[in-house]
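The protein record passed on below.

***
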Amino acid sequence: QVNLVESGGGLVQPGGSQVLSCTVAGTSQAIYKMAWYRQASGEERELVAHIISDGARTYADSMKGRVIISRTTPSKTAYLQMNNLQPEDTAVYYCNVRFGGNPMDYWGKGTLVTVSS
């Protein structure tokens, strides 16, 4: 059974940094894409960044220049380094995975990032 284990999150002051991690467990399927989405209260879920198997990265315009997504292949872990966080970045951040040849989306339970002084 596919299980996405997220860590990180919590309270951070404006201008601060936060690192989120997501580890894929419970499957031997080859990972095609790992992504982070976020959903603020009352808003729709939106893409923050994704990284595909060849290393290509995509970033949302709202966070471009402030986030870096990376991935360690052997441990099937993706990281999201977020810098210069602002109150409007407060949201639940979700890990998302797609496997090669499998059209299903797999989601983590989400981790809350609160940016506040």
Q: What stands out?
A: The mean pLDDT is 94. The CA atoms of residues 32 and 54 lie 9 Å apart.
